[in-house]
Amino acid sequence: xxxxxxxxxxxxxxxxxxxxxxxxxxxxKAALKEVKMALLEADVNFKVVKQFxxxxxxxxxxxxxxxxxxxxxxxxxxxxEELIALMGSETTEIAMQxxxxxxxxxxxxxQGAGKxxxxxxxxxxxxxxxxxxxxxxxxxxxxxxxxxxxxNGQKQExxxxxxxxxxxxxxxAKEAIAYAEKNxxxxxxxxxxxxxxxxxxxxxxxxEIQSTVTVHQTLLVVDAMTGQDAVNVAKEFDEKVGIxxxxxxxxxxxxxxxxxxxxxxxxxxxxxxxxxGEKLSDMEQFYPDRMAxxxxxxxxxxxxxxKAQESIDIDEDKGREMAGRMKKGKFDFEDYLESMxxxxxxxxxxxxxGMLPGMGIKGADxxxxxxxxxxxxxxAIVLSMTKAERRNPKLLNPQRxxxxxxxxxxxxxxxxRFIKQFEQSQKMxxxxxxxxxxxxxxxxxxxGMKGGFPF
Amino acid sequence: MSxxxxxxxxxxxxxxxxxxxxxxxxxxxxxxxxxxxxxxxYEELEEILIMGDIGINATTEIIERLKEQVKEQHLKETSExxxxxxxxxxxxxxxxxTAYDFEKEQSVIMVIGVNGVGKTTSVGKLAGKxxxxxxxxxxxxxxxxxxxxxxxxxxxxxxxxxPMIGGAEGADPASVVYDAVSAAKARGxxxxxxxxxxxxxxxxxxxxxxxxxxxxxxREFPDAHRENLIVLDGTTGQNALVQARxxxxxxxxxxxxxxxxxxxxxxxxxxxxxxxxxxxxxxxGVGETIxxxxxxxxxxxxxxxxxxxxxxxxxxxxx
Lengths: 455, 319
Prior knowledge:
The complex is a heterodimer. Chain A has helices spanning 6-13, 25-41, 46-60, 71-87, 115-128, 145-156, 169-183, 200-212, 230-241, 258-267, 288-296, 301-314, 316-327, 333-345, 349-355, 363-369, 372-383, 387-391, 398-408, 412-431, and strands spanning 103-109, 133-138, 159-161, 187-192, 217-223, 245-249, 271-275, 283-285. Chain A is an alpha/beta fold. Chain A is flat and about 75 Å long. Chain A has 3 domains: 6-87, Up-down Bundle (Four Helix Bundle (Hemerythrin (Met), subunit A)), CATH 1.20.120; 103-286, 3-Layer(aba) Sandwich (Rossmann fold); 301-443, Orthogonal Bundle (434 Repressor (Amino-terminal Domain)), CATH 1.10.260.30. In chain A, helix 6 links the parallel strand 2 (133-138) and strand 3. By secondary structure, chain B is an alpha/beta fold. Chain B has 2 domains: 2-95 and 305-316, SRP54, nucleotide-binding domain (Four Helix Bundle (Hemerythrin (Met), subunit A), Up-down Bundle), CATH 1.20.120.140; 97-296, 3-Layer(aba) Sandwich (Rossmann fold), CATH 3.40.50. Chain B is built from 12 helices and 8 strands. Chain B has helices spanning 2-33, 39-51, 56-72, 78-93, 119-132, 149-160, 173-187, 204-220, 239-250, 269-277, 298-306, 312-316, and strands at residues 107-112, 137-142, 164-166, 191-196, 225-233, 255-259, 281-285, 293-295. In chain B, strands 3-2-4-1-5-6-7-8 form an 8-stranded mixed beta sheet, sandwiched between helices. Residues 1-6 and 307-319 of chain B have low confidence and may be disordered. The chains are: A alpha/beta, B alpha/beta. The interface between A and B is large, with 52 and 51 residues.
């Protein structure tokens, strides 16, 4: 395991301090020591960590510990709130010029951050919003950079403008905008070469582009895996060319992405999008609260509790009824459908698993443990049953099973396996029936899930 | 030869200037700000090492060792403590001289790593270097995924003046590897360099693809000296450790190429990796030209890292 979960560490720290009413200085300091380590392990810049921890300490000492939380969780709750406050609480969009005016966006960043890919991804994103983008190949240095942009542009069905490698980027930008005006593009995205923030000549090249054409938005592309140096990079780019926003790439890795926090803290500039995968459609809106959870490396126990609370409040009667049935081992396929629905209301199984402490750490494990695809099949199988069959699984004879398999578009073996698993979990529920916790125990032991479910 | 060495040292120093400034400035201030070796002093040291991306575990190890030595040797001066710290890291970073044997043998070098770390560039530079040493080199472009990756490598192959075997975009990279190995055997090539697609270490399928490529080389070319080099971006933080660990799971890593060491990145992750995974850093990339890939040398690395002589360029570089 790459990182010991912060929640686990905190639980160790607070083993002996369970039922305190108020956070003492001692509590807070002990907890924050672990928080500090977690933030550092997540690559948040050391100076940012120091400031942050100090601010939290001041706020946390003397606070009442909320009902149902232990002091460690209470500190985490405060830390989490402060992190979100620091990251900004709202999602931000790229600021577009009004009406039909052309918006010029310039992508900048270090080598290998993912500028060219991000350029094509943004164009695709803007296309869905009805914008017509022109991608401009301003990287005249890296071998085949232009070809890469052209191929990506083709895949996104977006026009690409290039003048080869014999013209200065500023000149290319100018020509590109003239071309865009003629051809009805309303967004021009300049894909510039990767450069080191300490390379004066290369930074001057960006300034020249800015003084030659009007650049409305300069976006810094940053690799989410960047370490302590992220702050230097962001500061230099901001000071020399001024950045309006940040795009965080390669967030589909398992890095905790502390760079996001450092950059935000140092430049104050919003993070607009995050790159989440290899496909050109894998560009997502940035959600500060999710990032805060990720950096902290804790499964968000609190929001899980909140979410569970919400969804149980809505369907409290149903939930209670279901729990009662489950205890008696009478859980049937109707209940299965119902709980699947509830689960989906809570953001899907993987999001719930991701929120669990110690489980949000390794994406690959998570993926292999639950198979959303398989869950869909299960649902299709249940939906292919008649009401009577759902209520009384004993009705299911081979003939009916064949019909169900056809209806669900799966192999008969899959249906058999599912029903068998279901019967087993029914038995299991009956066994620990009396002891099962109301409401929360309902997700235990479902088919489609290879691992146990630690509720 | 001596001129080349000097050139390397100068380049490394130039490339590491920022590294040195950052760590050393901090260290200087600690060593001069404290007159006695106490807990506060150690805590400051710890912070500085962490700031250099060395990572918490490696830092803790280094500090613990330092404490022991200070106690054993009854040291009282912070300046003595500093020398100990430098020696400690240097010792830890030492590369075995047999580490470069593959350069002289018939070998297959597979270059792997996550996206955007500089694999293709490193392959190009390595090809140029080995070619310059009179080796018969063949490059295989097994990155069939990223748009225009093959073109990029072809340009490097042209610069290094070595032949290249490629596959169409979207082709099975394992088949490219197979073809390249066959060609290498048929042509009596000394060194086969394989460039692979960038892949995040937590993508199961892509890692399996890599495992397959590795297996094919093992099976088709069992006599060759095998070298799997992971390329790590010098600016990467703690995730580089995870990368090294995960890639090591699918293909035995024999060395690290640490790239982009010419920025302000502190490169401390190299220490962390050496400390935790015992994988030696074999090469570092300190620039953009084909000569800018150099053998890693712990003495020079650490000397450059801890060079505390006040340099005038510090002022001029203050930006």
